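F.,

This is the one I mentioned.
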């Protein structure tokens, strides 16, 4: 394994977790299976699954109902420099309807990250689709290109998932200083009222002035113990930024 590969994955995960918009490429039902690209919003769950909330009348929905193969491309263009040097992540797989048993919890998470989407639930014909991942391609800039290890992206559900709400409440009530110092240390934002809003294996999300920020862990965390240890590491790392 190339020694820089772990950095590729961490950078890809950081882009994946801090984004909620992408280009969705499907195979056009109406145009002889030519590629069809459209703008889409997405959310990720506690592990590395990706969801879109799509209308039955949307062209990309008609396409995936005809042929589930799809690619979601996430990208970040910063500044005025070379746009070809921008980071991008392409996740290839099959878009399938979320099963009835998982719709409620999956939609709740989707609404948490994209609250304006909740109004779509009152419109007939919106459904949640999950991307079943086949392959992942990362480009971090010129020469920084790799097909990532797919096994890392088809990760198990973390053991702490059922206790996520309680873990978040504990952090917000008893360790808000850790949340505030991480926000300051990573994003240089002072907000003593910032709150943890969601957890995932790769880190956690902070809500500050209605804006979401992703704080990464040093490695994926699948147990409550590993999450606790990761938060302790961050508390020490950002202690100099404590606001109170």
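My design for it:
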């Amino acid at each position: 394994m190339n020694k820089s590969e772990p950095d590729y994955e961490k950078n890809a995960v950081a882009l994946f977790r801090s984004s909620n918009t992408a280009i969705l490429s499907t195979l056009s039902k109406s145009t002889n299976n030519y590629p069809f690209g459209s703008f889409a919003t997405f959310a990720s769950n506690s592990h590395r699954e990706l969801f879109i909330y799509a209308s039955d009348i949307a062209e990309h929905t008609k396409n995936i109902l005809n042929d589930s193969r799809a690619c979601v491309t996430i990208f970040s263009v910063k500044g005025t420099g070379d746009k070809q040097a921008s980071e991008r992540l392409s996740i290839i797989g099959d878009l399938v309807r979320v099963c009835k048993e998982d719709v409620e919890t999956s939609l709740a998470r989707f609404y948490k990250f994209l609250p304006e989407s909740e109004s779509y639930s009152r419109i007939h014909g919106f459904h949640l689709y999950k991307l079943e991942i086949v392959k992942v391609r990362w480009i971090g800039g010129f020469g920084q290109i790799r097909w990532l290890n797919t096994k890392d992206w088809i990760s198990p559900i973390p053991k702490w998932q059922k206790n996520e709400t309680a873990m978040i409440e504990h952090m917000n009530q008893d360790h808000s200083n850790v949340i505030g110092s991480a926000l300051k240390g990573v994003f240089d934002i002072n907000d003593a009222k910032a709150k943890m809003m969601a957890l995932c294996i790769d880190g956690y999300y902070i809500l500050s002035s209605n804006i979401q920020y992703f704080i990464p862990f040093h490695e994926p965390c699948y147990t409550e113990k590993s999450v606790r240890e990761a938060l302790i590491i961050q508390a020490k790392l950002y202690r100099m930024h404590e606001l109170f």
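The radius of gyration is 19 Å.

Talk soon.
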